[in-house]
Amino acid sequence: MPRRYLKGIAMMKKNSTDKQKYKEEYLKRKKERKEERSRKPKYGMLSGMKWMWLYTLRESKLMAVCAIAVIPLALVLYALGLYTPSIILDKLQTGGSFNTVALVIVGLLAAHLIFRVIKDFIDLTREKMNHRIQWRMRLDMSDKVTDMDNYLWLDDQTNKKLHRADHAMYNTNTTFLHEIANMIVNVLCFFLFGSLVATLDLWILALIVVGVIINFVMEKWRQERVFALQPELDVYEKKHNYLTYNVTSEYQHGKDVRVYSLVTLIEKLVRDAANGRKRIYIRTSLATTVVNYVSNTVVALRDGLAYYILIQKALSGDIDAATFVLYFSAISQLSGFLNGILNQIAGLRDQSMYLSDYREFLDIHGKWNRGKGAPIPKGAFSVEFRNVSYTYPKGEKKVLDNVSFKINAGEKISLVGVNGAGKTTLTKLMCGLLLPDEGEILINGRNMLEYNRDEFYSLFSLVPQDYTLVPLTVAENITFCSRSEADDGRIWECLELAGLSEKVKGLPKGLDQPMMKRFDEDAVEFSGGETQRFLLARALYRNSPMLILDEPTAALDPIAEDEIYKKFDSLSGGKTAVFISHRLASTRFCDRIYLLDGASVAETGTHEELMKLGKKYAEMFEVQSRYYKETGTAKEGGEEIA
User: b/e map of 371-380 (b: 16 or more CB within 10 Å)?
Assistant: First the structure.
């Protein structure tokens, strides 16, 4: 049994349940690795070649022209290379004059030079076009990543496909057309040179073919071996990169690393990941070594026998010196052409595996409507949950279980509950960032999936707990549009409502001040409370019919928080609004309060109604009130002592 399995068992308590759980987890991962290794690409080589051909034609017709034009040029160059030495030697043997021989040599070299210059120019043009296509493929993948339905990010299979596609982009050779053209050249040259060698002795041709086939089979085995080990290598690579780059290089991890003295632990984890990666590299290197050893042995035997037959015929007088040179050159290159054919087939097959991973990721489609949808509401709208249940992937229990309630158009409601009660999850479902496992969510009486996804997103202005800033100006981070399209008057109005206008006015460049110091040393860096105000200003500028505030005052001091509460009516206007907070005192200005508990809506009503009810909400409110009273008493006592 593997050492890591025994070590894991030894570290656990003498508890049969724990041991069984660990064993089941180990067997599950072992099964997943086995399935990954035996995974077959969805798209085959011919499908990949067709896809890349059409993709290239769409992006660069010039590259397709270059690929076709290189075929006759390459054939002429190979033919010149084959016959030039023999022709020159034949002229010398037949006693031709110096001028005649010199003219033949100059003519052949000039022809070779002209065709070589033309071919090199075409190859250079093709290389430029190749970079363009590669850039386009990366851009397509980036667009797919940013445009993918949000809930898909939680799906294991989607994440696996993403990592495979990312790896494929570093291994996919986008010069499919060039490789196909080279293969055509090799096929034509093989028949040209092979027919010549066959006139000498069919056994030579047979030896070359058999030797090349053996090498091809070995190389195919090596490629499949490497491809099967790649998923396991990816796991170690991701862990190693995260530990050596993210954890040690990014500023936000620095506090934990130093305060909790994580250096020794991180070093151990890095070594484990590096050792795992090393084991995979050793296995792939061994496969390569075996293939190289067999291939070199086959080549030595094959070429040795072929040259032996040729030399015997030359010594017996069956062929003259010029013919010997011609056949020798043909034999030398023939195996190269056949190797080229098989290697290009193997290479195209290898590339098609990576291309298949790339295409499989692009094939991912969510449940959202991406075409024409129902007309979206123009103003405040209602939201209704009907028997909605949701469990996070790999979650052990439901976050929401058969939840039903309705928020009326223009109503302001508050979601409260302990940590993990499902408040943020509920708002993500409401916004369509997650989709329910059971039940449905209605917007103005229509199932949300009837709307076009992007139009549906425009209905919501969200102040989330986890947010995104981009290395642009203050104005651009609020509006998410070009500076020329931004409405400065509207920006200042939103900053004023959010209580951040004075801060921005005090910046050297005002609205044009850059953000994110990691990209610009002159950038502004807002504090936690200022960032929350900034996010509020962003949501207000969007001016959507529904405003969702998820813990918008968590980083604010009590005075600033009270200021936001007093402004809430003007902030929300006639919008439908949802407010999430752990501080129950902040719920009084809402029309209704929903208390989430036990994966369901446990209580509903106004603050006064829930206090009269005397259940969970009243209990939580009393606990918080008592804490503030006790804190106030302690402060007063502290002042007296001072």
Answer: eebbebbeeb
Name the range with the highest mean pLDDT among 427-441, 544-558, 588-602: 427-441
Are both 484 and 462 inside the same structural domain?
A: yes
Task: Give the CATH number, domain containing residue 338.
Answer: 1.20.1560.10
Nearest to 80 by CA among 110, 100, 117: 110
Q: Are 91 and 168 in contact (CB under 8 A)?
A: no
Mean pLDDT of 370-385: 89
Supply the pLDDT for residue 382. 92
Q: pLDDT band at 375, cuts 50/70/90?
A: very high
Residue 479 class from Cβ within 10 Å (0-12 exposed, 13-18 middle, 19+ buried)?
Answer: buried
- In a domain, residue 320? The reply is yes
Pair of tokens at residue 408: 């009326």
Residue 500 lies in a domain: yes
pLDDT of residue 187: 84
Task: Count the Cβ atoms, other than its own, within 10 Å of residue 110.
Answer: 10
Gap between the Cα atoms of 550 and 555, Å rounded: 12
Residues in the chain: 642
Domain co-membership, 282 together with 303: yes
Structural domain contains residue 162: no
What is the pLDDT at residue 429? 92
Number of domains in the chain: 3
Same domain, 244 and 261: yes
- Crossing angle, helix 202-241 and helix 263-315, to 10 degrees? 170
**pLDDT surpassing 60 at residue 135:** yes
Q: Say what the pLDDT of residue 638 is.
A: 37
Query: Does position 549 have pLDDT exceeding 90, yes or no?
Result: no
CA nearest neighbour of 415 among 561, 621, 611, 597: 597
In a domain, 371, yes or no: no
Q: Which ranges of 316-404 would DSSP assign to H, the alpha helix? A: 321-362
- Same domain (yes/no): 593, 552: yes
- Which residue matches tokens 């005649």? 100
* Residue 640 pLDDT: 33
| pLDDT given for residue 636 in this prediction | 37
pLDDT at 23 over 70: no
**Among all chains, which residue has been given the structure tokens 């050596």?**
244
Q: How many CA atoms lie within 13 A of 610 on its CB side?
A: 25
Q: CA 495 to CA 503: how far, in whole Å?
A: 9
Q: Do 18 and 126 lie in a common domain?
A: no
CATH number at residue 543: 3.40.50.300
Residue-by-residue DSSP string for 149-172: -GGGGG-HHHHHHHHHHHHHHHH-
- Is the pLDDT at 617 greater than 90? The verdict is no
Q: Are residues 349 and 405 in the same domain?
A: no
Q: What is the mean pLDDT of the chain?
A: 78
**7 touches 197 (CB < 8 A):** no
Element (H, E) at 579: strand 576-580
Same domain, 483 and 340: no
pLDDT at residue 619 greater than cutoff 50: yes
Domain extent, residue 347, equals 39-144+167-362
Same domain, 441 and 298: no
Three-class HEC string of 420-454: CCCHHHHHHHHHCCCCCCEEEEEECCEEHHHCEHH
pLDDT of 147 higher than 80: yes
Largest CA distance in the chain: 124
